[in-house]
Amino acid sequence: MSKIIEELEDHWKGIIGSVLGIIVVVFISIFIFNPNQSFETITASEKTLIREIRVAGEIVPAEEVTLGFTKGGRVTEVFVDEGDRVAKGDIIARLDTTELNANLREAVADRSLQQAELEVLVGGSTGSGQFVVAKQEALSIIEKAYSVADNQIKTRADIMYENPQSGRPQVTYAITSFFTQRALSDERRDIGILLEQWNEYLQTKSVDTLSESDLVIARNYLTIIREYFMSLAEGLSSAEPVANTSEANINEFRTTVSNAQSAIDTVIEQVVDVQDSLQNAGATIPVQQARIQSSDAIIDKFQSQLSDTTIRAPFGGVIVAKNADVGEVVAANQTVVELITDGDLFLEAFIPEVQLRDITVGDIARFTLDAYGPEITIVAEVSGIDIRATTREGVATYKTTFALEESEVTLRAGMTADIFIEALVVDELLLIPSSIIFEEDGNQFVYVQEEEAVIAKPVVLGREDSYGNVEIESGIKVGEKIVTNKQ
């Protein structure tokens, strides 16, 4: 039984195969060999692939700005109208400055008063200020201190020495301690050196160069000399009469040293007093100088506020809007005028990030203007792309600027444009219309006429342009005839 079934299956397969063969033969004979069948063809050739991106844009000036006052007030002068041309720095409008001018005059007067008080202290050009007087008095006391010290040494201390102003002075009375006697001789020699140094130092001082430190130095010199007289007094306490120095002489020496100490103490007190006076006089100068600086700051503030009452053109251009007139009260930062540059115009568009990837600076674009219709096309070039996105209607976009080529029509800021950007341009590619490409089971092919026959050739597709064409990477060659009306 199974054998009979197998024979029937083979019989039917043979019948079906014969029928299909007949259909194919009929098809080929009609399609390929039918001389009455006509086809429209195009010749495969290399072309330029252009992929365009279409966006909306606007003509914008190179610079535009809204101008207003940084403080509110009443407008007293407006020097421009819409359409007026201005140069950089031209005055456009002013606010009322009556109150500010009064405040400025008051601040200037106060500054003059503070300066006058400072001159009372420092003397100005007269040299009679309180501080100058204090410095003159201090210099006089320092000179007096040196004179007193020098006199006390040479008239009171030196009577107890032989060769007191030499390099080896000797005490003339007997002292029980050799070391004390030697020390007094050495101290007198050192005091002589100190007096010479002090005198040389004084020769370099004047009222202009004098400072509080000079009084400190004078006190230090006087303290050393006072300690020297204390050493003399201590030495005299153990002195003994000798052949040429009686007890009366020693007592006289003790009185002389005591008087010298008193003279030195007195001049030290005078130095301290004049130092206090100089400190007090000098202390008021920084305070007064600070008051003058404060006055200067107030003047600067009012001058700055006065400058804020004037609007000046930041660049040359054209006034395109005027929003305030004389007599009106305007708020701070309220727009008074709008200014744009005169002549320099650009095209501007905000391109979504998904389209921006195909655009680079230097790309060529064509655009039409609503004002002139689609018949007039103007050429532009991408000149700049912002590095930061601008969100518009929830979409991340990038402001893109286009430089304009010369145009026969008049361009004005604010005109709307339809822009076509040549985002991709590749020369010498084999392009054919995508409408004549067929697909079956995921494979693309075209029909090519070869002599009297039309055959299907598989092709590998590449990039598409913006005009319905597609690149053929392989499958057909330049010059082949491609059927365009095959159904």
Provide the fold topology.
Elements: H1 2-31, E1 41-43, E2 45-61, E3 64-68, E4 73-78, E5 85-86, E6 91-95, H2 98-122, H3 130-157, E7 161-162, E8 170-171, E9 174-175, H4 178-203, H5 212-236, E10 239-240, H6 247-307, E11 310-312, E12 317-322, E13 329-330, E14 335-341, E15 345-352, H7 353-356, E16 364-369, E17 373-385, E18 390-392, E19 395-404, E20 416-433, E21 438-440, E22 443-450, E23 453-458, E24 460-464, E25 469-474, E26 481-483
Helix pairs in contact: 2-6, 3-4, 3-5, 3-6, 4-5, 5-6
Describe the structure.
- The N terminus is likely disordered.
- Among the domains are: 36 residues; 63 residues, OB fold (Dihydrolipoamide Acetyltransferase, E2P) (Beta Barrel); 178 residues, Up-down Bundle (I/LWEQ domain).
- The protein is 41% helix and 31% strand.
- The strands form six sheets. Strands 2-15-19-17-16-20 form a six-stranded antiparallel barrel. Strands 1, 21, 22, 23 and 26 form a five-stranded antiparallel sheet that branches. It has a four-stranded antiparallel sheet with strand order 3-14-12-5, with no helix packed on it.
- The longest helix has 61 residues.
- The chain is built from seven helices and 26 strands.
Q: Give the beta-strand count.
A: 26
Radius of gyration based on Cα positions: 55 Å
Main sheet attributes: strand count, strand direction, barrel closure: 6 strands, antiparallel, barrel
What is the number of helices?
A: 7
Mean pLDDT: 85
- The CATH topology of the domain at 122-299 is what? I/LWEQ domain
Percent of residues in β-strands: 25-35%
**Share in helix:** 40-55%
- Judged by helices, strands and strand pairing, the structural class is alpha+beta
Strand order of the largest sheet: 2-15-19-17-16-20
CATH architecture of the domain at 122-299: Up-down Bundle
Task: Tell me the name of the CATH class of the domain at 122-299.
Answer: Mainly Alpha
Query: Uncertain runs with pLDDT below 50, 5 residues or more?
Result: 1-5, 14-35
Assign an overall shape. elongated
Q: What is the terminal separation in angstroms?
A: 49 Å
